[in-house]
Specification:
Blueprint lengths: L4 H19 L8 H9 L16 E2 L7 H16 L4 H12 L25 E2 L5 H11 L14 H4 L2 H7 L5 H9 L6 H20 L5 H10 L10 H13 L12 H8 L3 H9 L5 H13 L8 H6 L3 H17 L1
Parallel strand pairs: 1-2
Helix pairs in contact: 1-3, 1-7, 1-9, 1-13, 1-14, 1-16, 3-4, 3-7, 3-16, 7-8, 7-9, 7-16, 8-9, 9-10, 9-14, 10-11, 12-13, 12-14, 13-14
Protein name: Selenoprotein J
Cofactor: Mg(2+)
GO molecular function: metal ion binding
Length: about 325
């Protein structure tokens, strides 16, 4: 039975969240020897490690990283408002990540001065990263533009699934993605890369599995009449060509491009997420994009055991269905 458009849209959201949760206990392991030791106890299935091996922060297995939490807040806002409502999204992000929340830990203090006492790692709780800290400071200062203008990390790519799921196939899709991203990351390179990732995910939501996805996205980016053009699109094109030219290499040889490499080279969600986990580093950010793309492509591609172990899955499914209903009304 073929997936419907609604199935693929929901699959993208759930796939991203499940992959994020699967990798969370092994997020940010940068030491190759430590990674090798941790993997030795888990192979061939390193996902959902029962005890966290994260050297920076510790959360219960099945919970999301700060990336998955941002995607959830965006999904909640979209499903309630039926659109990218910047005012609502800003309030929800601040309420979820701001003062008085589980993210409010001494090391996560947006106003923590550099050069203070050395932090004891890992912290017991989630990690509030640099763009979220800047966002909180900007909201506190009453700034109209709340996004961090110096952060171009992967947050935008990791949380785009709900927006693309809602607007796939509509001319305003990229505009909506950019609008959502700039709430916390007002960096042009971050936006350009996120929009390229959105084009890939949209292609899979609209078409399912397609070996020509890379060429289709490159054609869009090279089109002088493309939707929502960015000044840095040319740099993104060069990067995508580098991935295309190096598909024969292993993911370990292409860690910075590992998310797209995993989507294009491997065949199923669990296989691709495990492969990127073996690369170490920011596994969760790469895995969330991989999970979104495979969740949109493959019938029953998200393992049932992964869904059950993703603690927020029932709520994610409920909100995703509500979002898709609103999508069909657009």
């Amino acid at each position: 039975m073929a997936l419907t458009l609604a199935d693929r849209a929901i699959g993208a959201i759930i796939g991203a969240a499940a992959a994020d949760a699967a990798t969370q206990p092994m997020h940010w392991i940068y030491n190759p020897d430590t990674l090798k030791e941790v993997l030795s106890d888990l192979e061939p299935c390193p996902e959902f490690r029962p005890e966290s091996a994260n050297p920076f922060y510790r959360r219960a297995t099945g919970e999301q990283t700060c990336y998955g939490d941002q995607a959830y807040v965006l999904l909640e806002s979209l499903s309630r408002c039926g659109d990218v409502n910047v005012e609502d999204l800003t309030k929800r992000i601040y309420k979820f990540f701001g003062p008085g929340t589980v993210y409010e830990l001494p090391l996560n203090d947006p106003y923590r001065e550099k050069g203070g006492p050395k932090a004891i790692l890992p912290i017991d709780g989630p990690w509030r990263n640099s763009s979220l800290k800047a966002f909180i400071r900007n909201v506190d200062a009453g700034k109209e533009e709340t996004g961090c203008d110096t952060d171009c990390q992967m947050d935008g790519v990791t949380k785009l699934a709900p927006v693309v799921a809602m607007y796939a196939g509509r001319p305003e899709m990229l505009e909506k993605v950019e609008k959502a991203v700039r709430v916390t990351q007002n960096d042009d390179m971050c936006v350009a890369v996120t929009l390229a990732a959105a084009r890939f995910l949209e292609h899979y939501i609209l078409n399912g599995s397609d070996s020509n996805a890379l060429d289709a996205v490159l054609a869009q980016l090279n089109d002088p009449k493309r939707q929502n053009p960015q000044e840095l699109d040319r740099a993104v094109i060069v990067h995508i060509h580098q991935v295309k030219d190096n598909l024969a290499k292993t993911s370990q040889q292409l860690v910075p491009a590992g998310a797209l490499h995993g989507v294009l080279k491997l065949k199923q969600l669990d296989e691709a997420v495990r492969d990127t986990m073996r690369c170490g580093g920011c596994t969760a950010s790469r895995a969330s994009f991989i999970g979104a793309c495979f969740g949109a492509q493959v019938l029953q591609g998200i393992p049932e055991s992964w869904r059950k172990r993703t603690l927020r899955y029932p709520l994610l499914l409920q909100l995703s269905k509500k979002l898709v209903q609103k999508k069909l009304q657009l």
